[in-house]
Amino acid sequence: MSDTQVEPRPGSTFRLNEDWLATIVGLALIALVLVGAIPAWLVP
Q1: Rounded to an integer, what distance in angstroms lies between the CA atom of residue 18 and that of residue 11?
Q2: What digits encode the pLDDT tens for the residues 19-38?
Q3: Within a domain: residue 6?
Q4: Residue 44 lies in domain
């Protein structure tokens, strides 16, 4: 095995995992329904 270590890049400490992505998508869908851009029956 190699003894070299990967150095973390500055500014890449924030990662958007799938839980946060699902939360953002859900909030965006709720906002679109409240604004009236999409009908409420379309969102499960």
Answers
A1: 20
A2: 889 999 999 999 999 999 98
A3: no
A4: 16-44
